[in-house]
From TrEMBL:
It comes from Cyanistes caeruleus. Residues 1-19 have a biased composition (Basic and acidic residues). InterPro entries: Meiosis-expressed_gene_1. Essential for spermiogenesis. One of its GO terms (cellular component) is nucleus. This is Meiosis/spermiosis associated 1. Residues 1-34 are annotated as: Disordered. The lineage of its organism: Eukaryota, Metazoa, Chordata, Craniata, Vertebrata.
């Protein structure tokens, strides 16, 4: 039996609707607190972050290669993967920095090689999201 737990949303996402109080965004809340970068990225990973825009890759790069691997496994990018799987780090090959292993939403794993897997004919299929 598989259970699904909803992650706890940070309090900065809650809007205050009483008179005279304005809603607070996560960015405003994070600026006022003295947090280190790991705490900030943890809050942003837990929050439901949506991309503002998207464009297609034109040429191959290391970033495009990793995006190709995430999208093959069914995710937009590393941000969505970390949100869904609630992990802090993605396993990467130390030699190349490419993603080594990803877990799909149905809990099966994709294993990737050390070298490039995104061929030139597939580069234009890769979506690059802007946040």
């Amino acid at each position: 039996m598989v259970t699904h737990e909803e992650p706890d949303l940070p309090t900065c996402l809650e809007e205050k609707h009483s008179l005279g109080e304005s809603s607070t965004s996560c960015k405003e809340e994070l600026k006022t607190n003295d947090m280190d970068m790991s705490e900030v990225s943890e809050v942003m990973t837990k929050a439901d972050i949506k991309p503002k825009s998207m464009h297609r890759a034109k040429t191959w790069s290391d970033n495009v290669e990793n995006l190709y691997r995430f999208q093959q496994a069914g995710y937009r990018d590393e941000v969505e993967y970390k949100q869904v799987k609630q992990v802090d780090e993605v396993e990467c090959w130390p030699e190349t920095g490419f993603v080594k292993k990803l877990q799909r939403r149905d809990n099966t794993f994709y294993y990737y090689n050390r070298q490039r897997e995104c061929e030139d004919k597939d580069v234009h299929k890769v979506k690059i999201y802007v946040y």
